[in-house]
Design brief:
The complex is a heterodimer. Chain A is an alpha/beta fold. Chain A has 2 domains: 44-158 and 283-335, D-Maltodextrin-Binding Protein, domain 2; 159-281 and 353-375, D-Maltodextrin-Binding Protein, domain 2, CATH 3.40.190.10. Helices cover 35% and strands 16% of the residues of chain A. Chain A is built from 14 helices and 14 strands. The model of chain A is unreliable at 15-36 (pLDDT under 50). Chain B is mainly alpha-helical. Chain B is built from 14 helices and no strands. Classes of the chains: A alpha/beta, B mainly alpha.
């Protein structure tokens, strides 16, 4: 029996409707407006938009004031509403919470998880005609948000995954992911704490499709990671942890997102963000609207705010992430950063120019293997 | 009289109903749900249609995965920490209960003062102290006892760091039951031992220590039970190279939040619950209600 159903039946059986009502925010109410029925207008919606998102994407964790100003001030102007933010640490954690029955208005997962949200009927399609900025969005990127012919996600941000290293301390023998496994720098390396490390090992070791490895390939990557694990100082969970470790000189090499590069550069560290010969990994993330959201028009206003040129400038200027808005002005950004992150060349998002982060069909097996690596 | 007893019964029932309802809703029901998940009667995802099965239990209990080994690793760490903490906390409790005459409870408050700050902050503070550029290493650099290019790296992200931080976190809590146990000692017994010619050391071994054993046991349980499932401290200060950042609690967390494998996560969580329940049953016989209440 799925958990969502169980929650509903348990609630009825126990007769604790009052408690469940109080917990409404944390459970699935299943109140969706039937197709064809008139929706309440924006001013009749309850407001108090609930956004389930990454830290620093509006809640002010990283840039207090600026996140509001650039990402959702337009939303506030349009609706008079102030969104409430609920955070997840990574995509797995976020999806687990939603799958277990928690519901908000907006969720912001990455593309390889889009299908999962649709499969559990957690999200509903957007009406892109309600988005003023829709015409400015990159159609190629937005295709990733189309599932079963409907625009379930508005793709907003994208970026890279690549090795980051201290140029003044490290001399790479090759432009390669092998730097994360370089015996010369034992104790100065940090990996991310996700099963994607198996994928990285797969790319490095020439596996044809590291997102869908065979048993033998997976075993081989697992053993490779176990053999190299003694080199690792720590696994990071939040990218800010990696930056802090760079700043404290605890590590010199790391599996990194562009923001760690940005923070390190901003802190005056001599860092390089590598373009490995096996290819960087590109990711993109987008906004989904919960199927039972009672803030349909609020949600669209929020997505529109996030899709604006202003929001794009913020993501590029402060996080060094790419944005799907094509009207972005790169003049204010230093040329070397534009080049390092290929912000002016969206063809980088298409294979074979990069490895696009993909759905992992055997995720359970990957997770088991990753646990074995960590436990070793 | 019967009317009075009936009224008293109703009062007792009314007073108990709240806590019992709380216990039922937020302990019994969740445990039942976890049991159902562990055998596959419940699934996280609606797309999962697998049948009821004890395969996850079998896989765990037969050691056909890394998790049973992780459990024993956690037991070793927890046991070591518990013993160290009890040994360190005993003199503190002894001093407070038997040596301090004035402001005993003020000093007790000072000892438990760290509890007034966030657990997370206390753990994170150790990263600042133990880091490669932390307080200890910086002091060594300043004193020219260590080259700045070669800090002591095992201070943090290591099993040592996990044990040190856990010990630090739990010492004040563990000192409490020891203090209560010693504070309740009848002073006449100690005087009698002295009158009969026992030395202070002999008095301690033959009188004080045996009578404080319930407090010691409670202290041991109080630190062993929570640390065996600990996952925050290992995650923050544990090391990946020696696996100290991934104990049994971390494995359970990863099963639920990374692998989306609630079945084996539930098996592990239930196993831990059963182990703790058995331990509590065994040790509970040695813990007086008064000591435990501390």
């Amino acid at each position: 029996m799925p958990r969502r159903d169980l929650l509903r039946y348990t609630g009825m059986g126990l007769g604790v409707s009052a408690i469940l009502a109080a917990c409404k925010q944390a459970s699935s109410s299943g109140i969706a407006v039937p197709s064809g029925q008139a929706r309440p207008q924006l001013d009749q919606e309850p407001g108090g938009l609930q956004v389930f998102d990454w830290s620093g994407y509006g809640n002010g964790d990283y840039y207090p004031g600026k996140e509001r100003q650039y990402l959702w001030a337009d939303y506030q102007t349009a609706t008079g509403d102030t969104p409430k933010f609920y955070l997840f640490e990574n995509d797995d954690q976020g999806f687990t919470k939603v799958a277990s029955g928690t519901s908000y208005d907006i969720v912001h997962p990455c593309a390889y998880r889009f299908q999962d949200y649709v499969n559990i009927n957690a999200v509903q399609p957007w009406d892109t005609s309600l988005l003023k900025n829709w015409s400015q969005m990159n159609p190629e990127l937005e295709k990733q948000g189309v599932i079963n012919g409907q625009q379930y996600f508005i793709v907003e941000d994208w970026g890279f995954i690549a090795p980051l290293y201290r140029a003044d301390k490290v001399e790479p023998q090759d432009q390669s992911w092998s730097l994360l496994f370089d015996d010369r720098y034992g104790g100065k390396i940090s990996w991310i704490d996700t099963l994607e490390m198996l994928v990285i090992a797969g790319f490095l070791n020439g596996v044809s499709n590291p997102w869908d490895m065979t048993d033998d390939e997976l075993k081989s990557q697992k053993e490779f990671l176990i053999s190299k694990k003694p080199l690792v100082k720590f696994f990071w969970g939040q990218s800010y942890e990696l930056f802090q470790a760079f700043k404290r000189e605890e590590v010199w090499i790391g599996y990194a997102w562009p923001d760690s590069y940005a923070y390190s550069k901003g802190a005056g560290l001599d860092v390089e963000y590598m373009n490995p010969k096996e290819g960087r990994i590109t990711w993109s993330c987008g906004l989904g609207m919960f199927a039972d959201s009672q803030n349909y028009y609020h949600a669209h206003a929020y997505a529109d705010s996030w899709s604006s040129q202003k929001a794009a400038q913020f993501l590029v200027g402060y996080y060094y992430y790419g944005h799907a808005n094509t009207n972005i002005d790169l003049d204010g950004i230093s040329e070397d950063i534009v080049k390092a992150l290929s912000l002016d060349d969206l063809s980088i998002l298409v294979p074979p120019n990069s490895n696009v982060e993909s759905y992992i069909p055997r995720r359970q097996d990957y997770a088991d293997a990753w646990d074995e690596v960590k436990a070793s | 009289m019967a009317k009075g007893e009936s009224g008293s019964g109703r009062t007792t029932g009314a007073l108990l109903s709240g806590p019992l309802l709380w216990l039922f809703l937020f302990f019994i029901v969740p445990v039942v749900l976890i049991v159902l998940y562990s055998v596959g009667a419940l699934h996280l995802l609606p797309t999962d249609h697998s049948a009821v099965s004890f395969a996850a239990w079998k896989k765990f209990l037969t050691g056909d995965s890394v998790y049973l080994g992780l459990f024993w690793k956690s037991v070793r760490v927890s046991l070591t920490v518990s013993i160290i903490v009890v040994l360190l906390a005993y003199p503190v409790g002894y001093f407070l209960a038997l040596c301090v005459k004035k402001r005993k409870y003020v000093l007790l408050l000072v000892i438990i003062a760290p509890f007034l700050t966030s657990y997370l902050l206390r753990v994170l503070a150790w990263k600042v102290i133990l880091g490669d550029r932390g307080v200890i290493n910086s002091a060594l650099f300043e004193l020219h006892l260590r080259d700045p290019g070669h800090p002591i790296t095992w201070l943090v992200y290591s099993q040592f760091a996990v044990m040190l931080v856990l010990a630090y976190v739990w010492i004040p809590f563990v000192a409490l039951p020891i203090f209560v146990s010693l504070n309740g000692l009848d002073g006449a017994l100690l005087e009698a031992a002295g009158d009969l010619g026992a030395s202070r050391l002999r008095t301690f071994w033959r009188v004080t220590l045996p009578l404080s054993l319930p407090g010691l046991t409670a202290a041991f349980v109080f630190v062993f039970v929570p640390t065996i499932g600990e996952f925050v401290t290992p995650q923050i200060v544990g090391g990946s190279s020696d696996g100290s950042n991934f104990l049994f609690g971390n494995a359970i967390n990863a099963r639920f939040t990374q692998a989306l494998d609630w079945q084996s996560g539930s098996v592990q969580a239930l196993f831990l619950l059963i182990v703790v329940a058995v331990l509590m049953t065994i040790f509970g016989r040695r813990i007086s209600v008064r000591t435990a209440a501390a």
